[in-house]
Amino acid sequence: MRDADSELVTQCRSGDRRAFETLVQRYERPIFNAAYRMVDSLDDARDVTQTVFLKAFEKLDSFDPHYRFYSWIYRIALNESINLLNGRKYVTADSDEQASDWKSPEENLRTSQVCDRVQDALKTISSEYRSVIILKHFLGCSYSDISLILQVEEKTVKSRLFTARQRLREALSDSELI
Amino acid sequence: MIDERHLELIHGEIDGENSAGESRELNRALDSSTECRALYEDMRRVADLLQEAKPVEPPRQLRAQIVGALANTLPHAQPRPASGRAGLGWLSMLRPRYAAAFAMGLLVAFGTVSVQRWAGDAELDVSQLTGTMTQHQALGQATPQRLVIDLEEISGSVVIRDQDPLLMVEFDLSSAGIVEVVAAFDGSDARFNGLAQRQGEALSVTAEGSRVSIKNQGEQQLALFLSNPRNGAMNLELGFYIDGRLIHQADLNHAGRQ
């Protein structure tokens, strides 16, 4: 499927908006999930996802076709999530937002105990380590993919993954899941 | 103490990155070192728990919102406008659910809008009606509802598109002078959800309850997004005003999706 992305990008660059809609359909779910794992808010994940696709569409001309589309858009997604987290440092009403108008069926999917505890554990590690965990475990990226997305060497990817998992283990053992 | 090589093999195995030879090398280490085995089992458990965390489903209307916003973004086949005429494209830089509100707040701050108008003049003055152009045909929902306006003061079109669960009302208008377009929607649970602009610069936009007011001058293409959670029927009443005087009125009907 991912190999077909380049064809869709080409069609989109030729003015075929429907081609981009196909990319939205293909990547909406992974990007929303990655954003949710990063920012820990369904509302913010929705905003990030929408912004990611709008930015990707606007910047499609700058996309280098030698790279894979998913690595490019995942990078945008992580950057947008981190931008939001950085902005959130100056916002004090974050917990209020969590209890806002989201009482939808989507919210109910958070009820899983494991899901909640994993999410809580993810919150305890830095965004740098969270990024590699999300790319590896939620988006299924390889070391080389992650290296490309984060623009760091593979040995750095491995090192961050090792440390991230160690810290997650500590957090998960606190919640008695390990 | 686990050496670097075995540490790399343990994580490589969990990540599915080890070659067959590396997996065999790891198995030998696991057989001979309880410390290696304990770490491997811990890391495997962490990976399994991450795997168990089920994906969260995106909100049902998210894709429609994205596609709706894209519909009002410049196509790639066309050159981009100069920054001064880029419309409200920069709004996409804001958090989307705040963008419309931000735009409106900004416009209010510039003093180009009288929000008070809604409080003091909430009802349309039907005594000043000069004519009604209505499309009440029950067209299929796949067919956008289109209204063509061809007046001396303002011309163009207004189209309702069904982008389940959102409704998109596209305005493509041209007027030499300032014309205020008031869109009042009723008959359903529809609520104002957002605004996007492809061309032109709205002089002002206000939204309150089930009414949206746009002041237009020159060429303008913009879209209103209305949430329509029950896909119910909706009547859109459009009033065109110059200096507060109603010069034209028209209706567009959305038949809903039953």
Describe the structure.
- The complex is a heterodimer of chains A (178) and B (258).
- With 178 residues, chain A is an all-alpha fold.
- Chain A has ten helices and no strands.
- In chain A, helix 7 packs across helix 10.
- Chain B is α+β, with helices and mostly antiparallel strands.
- In chain B, a hairpin with a 2-residue loop joins strand 8 and strand 9 (245-254).
- The radius of gyration of chain B is 28 Å and the shape is rod-shaped.
- At the A-B interface, helix 2, helix 3, helix 7, helix 8 and helix 10 of A face helix 1, helix 3 and helix 4 of B.
Brief summary:
With 178 residues, chain A is mainly α.
Write the layout of secondary structure elements.
The complex is a heterodimer of chains A (178) and B (258).
Chain A: H1 2-13, H2 17-39, H3 42-58, H4 69-88, H5 94-98, H6 105-108, H7 113-123, H8 127-138, H9 143-150, H10 154-174
Chain B: H1 4-14, H2 20-32, H3 34-52, H4 62-70, H5 96-109, H6 116-120, E1 132-135, E2 145-150, E3 154-163, E4 166-186, E5 191-199, E6 204-208, E7 211-227, E8 234-242, E9 245-254
Parallel strand pairs in B: 1-9
Antiparallel strand pairs in B: 2-3, 3-4, 4-7, 4-8, 5-7, 6-7, 8-9
Helix pairs in contact in B: 1-2, 1-3, 2-3
Taking the alpha carbons of the first and last residues of chain B, their distance comes to 67 Å
At CATH level 2, the architecture of the largest domain in chain A is Orthogonal Bundle
- Listing every helix as H and every strand as E from the N terminus to the C terminus, the arrangement of chain A reads HHHHHHHHHH
Seen as an oligomer or otherwise, the chain set is heterodimer
Rg of chain B: 28 Å
Largest sheet of chain B, in brief, is:
9 strands, mixed
Unreliably modeled segments of chain B? 75-95, 98-142
By CATH reckoning, the class of the largest domain in chain A would read: Mainly Alpha
Determine the fraction of residues in helical runs of chain A and give it as a percent range. Answer: over 70%
CATH classification, class level of the largest domain in chain B: Mainly Beta
CATH topology of the largest domain in chain B: Immunoglobulin-like
In round numbers, the mean pLDDT of chain B is: 71
The chain pair with the largest interface is: A-B, 57 and 43 residues
- SS strand fraction of chain A: under 5%
Mean pLDDT value of chain A: 84
Total number of helices of chain B = 6
SS element count, helices of chain A: 10
Query: How many beta-strand segments of chain A?
Result: 0
- Helix amount of chain B: 25-40%
